[in-house]
Amino acid sequence: MSDTPVQKIAVLGAGSWGTTFAKVMADAVTTGSEAVEISLWARRPEIAEEIATRHTNSTYLGETVLPEAITATSSLTEAVEAADVVVLAVPAQHLRSHLGQLADVLAPHAVLVSLIKGLERGTDMRMSEVIAAELGLEPSRIAVVSGPNLAMEIAREEPTASVVACEGEQTAELIAGLCNNSYFRPYTNTDVVGVEIAGIVKNVIALAVGICDGQNLGDNSKASVITRGLAETTRLATVLGGRLETFSGLAGLGDLVATCASPLSRNRSAGRLLGEGLNTAQVTEQLTQTAEGMKSGSAVLELARRNGVEMPISEAVVAVLNGSLDVDTIASLLLARDLKAEGK
Ligand SMILES: NC(=O)C1=CN([C@@H]2O[C@H](COP(=O)(O)OP(=O)(O)OC[C@H]3O[C@@H](n4cnc5c(N)ncnc54)[C@H](O)[C@@H]3O)[C@@H](O)[C@H]2O)C=CC1
Ligand SMILES: O=C(CO)COP(=O)(O)O
Predict the structure, then answer these.
(1) Atom nearest to 292 CA in ligand 1
(2) From CA 259, how far away is CA 214, in angstroms rounded?
């Protein structure tokens, strides 16, 4: 990272979170003395056009008016050229192919920030690992942002907190400074593994809670799934090097509670449809936005198996997703394990 102030930020992905986070940063940086351009890349030219001309992205954010500091383009090269910070908000399974297009245009000092809560299928890699592998960047130039951050609420400027994690503390502080505004409060953390695993697995647990909804199970069942879900997430993360305390924080418990409780969650909504008896193809057809747990679930299980970690709730969800488990039997299976002490 260079010492000169940030002048341009690129955000790749103009879906609900990419657009909202662009607004969060615009509302953070326009209060400072230096003008910062936020260049938002939309895959669909008509969305770039609407953002550029009307300052709205009605497909994802209704009538929310976006700040003037946000420009939009459907050219990835144009968005990334000369950017000091590149924020990634595309679906996890498509990140690698987008990164391939960045290599030639990325500024030599640029910092990459992942907002993505998914694991790559086939490699079981976290997004920070995919970025490092594709672009050859050292960890101090890769940050992740994760927390209880339902995009629609933040677009309405309802206050929330979040975590910016990077192995390099200075980078985490830089990115936190770029998104710190009156309704978005970032905390810094150096536990990238823990923060990423928390965000990835909570989507699978939210699918499980949605399945409970679809099966008309009540709050005791859902609280039990959330609590044991947090336990299995923590087991996986700590085996991979993540820190225990991350899981009582915003990226851990905070995000799990927000997602599992909210009707805005795409993962919980997808889970509800599965619980009502739709199969994966039928649910996918109904979704208009990304529900990362639907794709990341099997990768989470593979990662867990390779590392000798038991994840019974994720296992049940993946069995429903791949059609090997009848959803009507899930109630008995979600929490079914040998009797043991709670802390294990
Ligand atoms: N929406 C939310 O409340 C939050 C989302 N996230 C995470 O942010 C990431 C992005 O999610 P959202 O913006 O919500 O998703 P979304 O479905 O609203 O938007 C995804 C965006 O990626 C674009 N995209 C680019 N290449 C694509 C391709 N090859 N295939 C499909 N879409 C492609 C889409 O056009 C779309 O603009 C996900 O990993 C999600 O888990 C994290 C926190 C909050
Ligand atoms: O990550 C989120 C909230 O923090 C959004 O969850 P969904 O992707 O399930 O909508």
Answers:
(1) 41
(2) 16
